[in-house]
Write a structure and sequence with these properties.
The protein is α/β, with parallel strands linked by helices. The chain is built from 10 helices and 10 strands. The model is unreliable at about 1-35 (pLDDT under 50).
């Protein structure tokens, strides 16, 4: 791995890691001896023109061929890809695709976190969920990424849901440290850490408390800027989470549309809706956020991807 590449990957996590380092209590479990491919040595990260790096979900890119889809993201102007189809590849397969295209894959997403949940009361299902996250970490490491995004589970798995997920994730922390992969929790509509029937000014405190409960630099937030615009002020949540935020998802949300058609009908394109993007930009500057932002909206061909990138920059750069 080149010095430039090492420095870049380190910089993406340095702010959050330093903030946690003084109060870390790491798991005492031995590191996994599971063999994984070495990360790719030759694909340099994109040059940063701002504090933000823009990516799209792999699933947004129209096409069938892995390498051609990665290349299309670059043609559209994205700095990299957030790979949300981990089940379809081995670590070596994605590594080879990244090597051959030169497209930077910065993150991998747990491919089955809604179906096989870390919160499940079924022990075998939780074991499968842990195996899925382990696979994602190995894929991300092989491709040169720095993290995996996971959905913890869902509140309907019972009052012990969060505790179950914590116990399973703690088993993965030694491997996360070994491979240099952050385990990032996305804020989603799963009923955890917010009240789906509650007010529109809810606090993000329960979510931040859960992250802090691990007392580990290897966990953090993959904060979705649009997912909880129905339940709290986005800028306020950003300021509260602060350095817990390692990466961002972006989408739009319209409370007006949700009021008319139902809350799940409120999701819209990034610059549609009623999220106050100016206040979001201010909050991100205040917490000194730098790094990756991934679009999570409807994708398509080259022209559609270019529209999405333009909207991302309009929202976050002004």
């Amino acid at each position: 791995m080149t010095k430039t590449r090492r420095s870049f990957l380190s910089s993406l996590t340095a702010v959050s890691a330093v903030a946690y380092a003084q109060r870390v209590v790491m798991s005492a479990d031995p590191l996994s001896n599971h063999l994984t491919p070495a990360p790719i040595p030759s694909t340099d990260p994109p040059a940063q023109k701002s504090d933000l790096l823009f990516s799209c979900k792999y699933g947004m890119i129209k096409g069938q061929d892995l390498e051609k889809r990665l290349e299309l993201s670059r043609t559209a102007g994205f700095d990299g890809v957030d790979f949300d189809d981990a089940a379809s590849v081995t670590p070596d397969e994605l590594r080879r695709a990244v090597e051959s295209t030169g497209v930077f894959v910065h993150n991998v997403i747990n491919h089955a976190h809604w179906k096989q949940r870390l919160t499940s009361p079924d022990k075998k299902e939780r074991e499968t969920a842990v195996s899925n996250v382990r696979h994602c970490m190995e894929v991300s490491h092989a491709a040169g990424g720095s993290a995996v995004l996971i959905v913890l589970g869902r509140a309907t798995d019972g009052p012990e849901a969060g505790a179950r997920a914590r116990e399973e994730i703690q088993k993965l922390l030694p491997l996360a440290a070994k491979l240099g992969q952050r385990i990032l929790f996305e804020n989603v509509w799963n009923g955890m850490f917010y009240d789906p029937e509650g007010s529109r000014d809810q606090s993000v405190q329960p979510f931040s408390d859960y992250i802090d409960s691990f007392r580990s630099p290897w966990v953090g937030a993959y904060f979705d800027l649009g997912n909880h615009a129905r339940y709290g002020d986005v800028a306020t949540w950003i300021r509260h989470l602060g350095p817990r935020i390692v990466k961002l998802d972006i989408k739009g949300y319209s409370n007006e549309k949700a009021d008319l058609n139902g809350v799940r009908k409120g999701f819209v394109d990034i610059t549609d809706g009623d999220i106050d993007w100016e206040s979001v930009r201010d909050a991100l500057r205040e917490i000194q956020f730098t790094g990756w932002v991934a679009a999570e909206v409807g994708g398509g061909d080259l022209s559609r991807l270019q529209v999405v990138l333009k909207q991302m920059k309009q929202a976050l750069l002004g």
